[in-house]
Specification:
Blueprint (H helix, E strand, L loop, with lengths): L2 H10 L2 H14 L10 H16 L4 H10 L2 E2 L8 H4 L3 H13 L18 H8 L5 E5 L6 E5 L31 H10 L6 H14 L19 H11 L1
Antiparallel strand pairs: 1-3, 2-3
C-alpha cells in the first residue's frame, strides 16, 4: 500500500528535482547576466540559489534575502537582482508581477482600467525602491548595492511626495528601517493575501500545464481563478 508514496518520495529526493526548481526560480528572480551583471556575477547568483534550495531554505526566506540584498554582488550574489534593472519603477513592476502575480504597469500613467490599482498604489510601491543605488567596486565588473538615505517618489499628477505604501494597504513607518526590509516582511507575512497564493498558482501551473489563474502573473478582478476553492486550498497548504 505504501509503494506509491515511497516512489514519490524517491523522486522528490533526486537532485534533478531541485535542479528543475532552481531553473524555474532563476527565471522568476531574473537571474541572468546583463550590462551591469557580469557572467561571473550571474553564475554566483545562480549558485547561491542552488545552494539555498539544496540546503532546504524555504522559498519565502529565499525571496526575503533576495529583496533585502545589499553589498558586493560578488560576495552577496543575490544583490545582482538590483543591477538587472536599475529604474525604481521597473523594480516595482517586476516585484509585483513576480511575487504577487499582479501587473501594475498600467497604473503608472492612469488608474488601471481592469483592476483596482491606482496611480497612488503604483507610486507608493515604487517608493520602496527609490533609495536603491549601486556603485562600482575596485573590480570594474563588481558592483556594490546599497540604500542611500532619502529618495523621494513624486506623484505624476500632483507632484507631491508619496511615501512607501504596501500595495492595496497601509503606509508603514520606514523612518528608522530600510524600506526594502519592511517590504520583505510584509511580502512574506502569513497574512499577505497574494504571496503564498501566487506561489501556489505557479506551482500548480508547473505541474498541470496551466495555472488556476492564467496567465499566472496577471491576477486581477477581471481575470478570476478558474476554481477559487482549489486555489484557496493550495494557498492554505503552502501557508
Amino acid at each position: 500500500p505504501a509503494r506509491s508514496a515511497t516512489f514519490v518520495d524517491s523522486l522528490l529526493a533526486r537532485p534533478e528535482f531541485i535542479d528543475q526548481w532552481v531553473m524555474r526560480l532563476a527565471e522568476l528572480l531574473r537571474v541572468r547576466s546583463s550590462n551591469d551583471v557580469a557572467p561571473k556575477a550571474a553564475q554566483g547568483w545562480f549558485e547561491w540559489l542552488q545552494r539555498s534550495l539544496r540546503g532546504g531554505l524555504c522559498i519565502d526566506e529565499i525571496v526575503r534575502r533576495q529583496i533585502t540584498a545589499a553589498g558586493s554582488n560578488y560576495s552577496v550574489p543575490e544583490a545582482s537582482y538590483f543591477l538587472v534593472e536599475r529604474d525604481a519603477k521597473v523594480m516595482a513592476e517586476n516585484f509585483a508581477q513576480a511575487f504577487l502575480g499582479v501587473r501594475i504597469s498600467c497604473a503608472q500613467c492612469h488608474n488601471h482600467p481592469f483592476d483596482r490599482w491606482t496611480q497612488d498604489d503604483y507610486t507608493g510601491l515604487v517608493a520602496f525602491f527609490a533609495e536603491v543605488r549601486a556603485k562600482r567596486a575596485e573590480d570594474p565588473n563588481e558592483w556594490v548595492v546599497f540604500d542611500r538615505r532619502g529618495g523621494d517618489t513624486r506623484h505624476p499628477i500632483t507632484n507631491q511626495v508619496v511615501p512607501p505604501r504596501f500595495l492595496g494597504g497601509e503606509a508603514p513607518d520606514v523612518q528608522r528601517r530600510e524600506r526594502r526590509a519592511v517590504l520583505a516582511e510584509w511580502l512574506t507575512a502569513p497574512e499577505n493575501p497574494w504571496f503564498a497564493r501566487n506561489l501556489a498558482n505557479r506551482v500548480w501551473a508547473a505541474y498541470m500545464g496551466q495555472g488556476v489563474v492564467e496567465p499566472v502573473d496577471d491576477v486581477r478582478i477581471s481575470n478570476p481563478a478558474a476554481n477559487e476553492a482549489l486555489l484557496a486550498a493550495q494557498r492554505a497548504r503552502r501557508g
